[in-house]
Design brief:
With 126 residues, this protein is α+β, with helices and mostly antiparallel strands. Helix content is 17%, strand content 34%. It is built from 2 helices and 6 strands. A 6-stranded antiparallel β-sheet has the order 1-6-3-4-5-2. It is globular, with a radius of gyration of 14 Å.
Length: 126
C-alpha cells in the first residue's frame, strides 16, 4: 500500500460531465513511488469517514499534457468543490492499464465496471 497526499487542483471537468467528478492533483505527488499509468483501487478518509475510490494516473492517447494527470474518483462522496484542500489517500491495487476509447459509451461502460470492482474490493485492515 502506498499513501499519498496532495492539494486538489482544478481539472478539465470531463469526469464531472460524465457523472464521475474527480479530485485532480499534480503528478509530482507520485515522486518516490513506482506507480505507473493506469487505474488503481484506493481509499481516502475525509472528515473521519472512509470512502472507496478509484485513482487514475495518466492520459491515454494524449500527448498534449506531457506532465500527465492524477485523478481520484471518490465513490459515494457528495459532490462539492474541493479545490485547494489537501487529501490523503492510500493506493491498494492496480486494476488495469489505461485504454483509449473511441466511443464515450465504451469508456463509461468501463468506468462502471471499475466502480463495481472498487465496491467489491476487500480492503485490508489498517
Amino acid at each position: 500500500m502506498i499513501t499519498l497526499t496532495g492539494k486538489v487542483i482544478p481539472g478539465e471537468q470531463i469526469g464531472e460531465r460524465q457523472g464521475y467528478p474527480t479530485a485532480n492533483f499534480r503528478k509530482h505527488i507520485l515522486r518516490g513511488t513506482d506507480l505507473s499509468d493506469g487505474v488503481y483501487i484506493a481509499r481516502t478518509t475525509i472528515n473521519k469517514r472512509q470512502y472507496r475510490a478509484l485513482l487514475v494516473i495518466g492520459v491515454p492517447g494524449k500527448r498534449v499534457q506531457r506532465q500527465g494527470k492524477v485523478e481520484l474518483y471518490i465513490l459515494s462522496y457528495p459532490r462539492q468543490v474541493m479545490y485547494g484542500k489537501h487529501i490523503t489517500f492510500s493506493v491498494y491495487k492496480k486494476l488495469r492499464p489505461l485504454y483509449t476509447y473511441i466511443r464515450e459509451r465504451d469508456l463509461l461502460a468501463r468506468i462502471k465496471k471499475d466502480v463495481q470492482a472498487a465496491r467489491a474490493y476487500q480492503y485490508p485492515a489498517d
